[in-house]
Amino acid sequence: MCVVCVCVCVFVLCVVYTYVHAARTHVAWWHGLLFALGAATACAEAARRTRGGLRRRACVSDEAVAWVQANEFERKEAVDKEPIWRVLLHNDDVHTFDYVIDTIVSVVRTVTRKKAHRITMEAHKSGLATVTTTWKQLAREYSLGLQKAGLTSSIAPDKSNSC
User: Fold this and answer.
1) What does the DSSP assignment read for 103-133?
2) What is the distance of C-alpha 133 from the center of its chain?
3) pLDDT above 90 for 5
4) Average pLDDT, the chain
5) Whether residue 134 has pLDDT greater than 70
6) Does the pTM exceed 0.70?
7) How far is CA 116 from CA 97, 122, 140, in A?
8) Which among 49, 79, 60 has a CA at the least distance from the CA of 6?
């Protein structure tokens, strides 16, 4: 494989990694882009030093690895300190039980049908039920997904697990 192709692959993989993890860890997208550019540059430099062949050499420099490890640690610390939010389902008299259960299972993939049934019954009886607890950004996504399906949903801080 040519050196340029390897460097482009490294860049693309780093961008994809950043996109996936930025949503989960609230990291700025440009941090990952800088890392991806640094990794691709390091790969090109390694290839240049070995006269066009990679010869089992790592494409990422030690500095880039140290930078990623330090940022990963900071992101984990930030996520650990982040308060937990509840996704709330409000009762309505419009949708059927089956529709609500199916919607919960399809939007919040970690919820089983059995748990979705319990959530639906709780919302029906008490007017409000907690679908799941998670960090704020994911709670917003789940709530919006439920709202797009026509259900009444909101988010609220979870007082029992706050820092």
Assistant:
1) HHHHHSTTS-HHHHHHHHHHHHHHSEEEEEE
2) 14
3) no
4) 76
5) yes
6) no
7) 10, 10, 18
8) 60
Spell out the CATH class of 85-161: alpha beta
Contact 160, 46 (CB under 8 A): no
Nearby residues of 7 by Cβ (< 8 Å), 6 or more positions away: 40, 43, 44, 47, 59
What's the average model confidence in pLDDT over 78-84? 73
Per-residue b/e over 111-130, b at no fewer than 16 CB within 10 Å? beeebbbebbebbeeeeebe
Domain boundaries, the chain: 3-81, 85-161
CA-closest candidate to residue 107, choices 70, 68, 153 = 153
Confirm if 118 and 54 have CB atoms less than 8 A apart: no
Angle between helices 3-25 and 62-81 (to 10 degrees): 20
Cβ-defined contacts of 92-100 (< 8 Å, 24+): 92/151, 92/152, 94/150, 95/150, 95/151, 97/124, 100/151
Tokens 């650990």 belong to: 80
Q: Copy the structure tokens of residue 97.
A: 């039980």
Say if residue 162's pLDDT is above 70: no
